[in-house]
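Session log. Operator J.P. requested a structure for one protein chain; no other inputs attached. Running the standard single-chain path with token output.
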Amino acid sequence: MQKLARLKVELEMLAKNPPPGIHCWQDDKNSEVILAEMSGPENSPFVDGTFLLQVTLSDKYPFSPPLVKFITPVYHPNIDPNGRICLTALKPKPSGSWNVTLNIPTILSAIRILLSEPNLSDPLMSEIAKEYSENYTQYKMQAEEFTRKHAMKKKICP
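Structure written below.
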């Protein structure tokens, strides 16, 4: 019951005051799934892209973190080809920093920041992290090409 009440409040927050560059809506087929459309952050290789993410709430939400993944492919050290995201706020304690005071708007904002500020000390994609740190120009070209190929479609929100 707490999950449904919390979800209602968070959906109202997202509708009335969405985080910059983020638009969300509840999935028509599954009330425990929120879809988010995220614009690429300024001053990043993703700036012209529009990315779709899926937020799935567990039965234990808000006491356990939501499962968030990119549906749109992203070339990034902290995002793998399956869309999984390495972000401490998405991990339960003790290895992560999830706590009940965090919410979906906060998590989505943190993911948008992660796009432009990768965490190279905890990458999912070690080769991309190495490229980022050793040859940023090459990384940026790859990320921009990936964005052009996968994230330049029309906006998808309803």
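Operator note: The mean pLDDT is 94.
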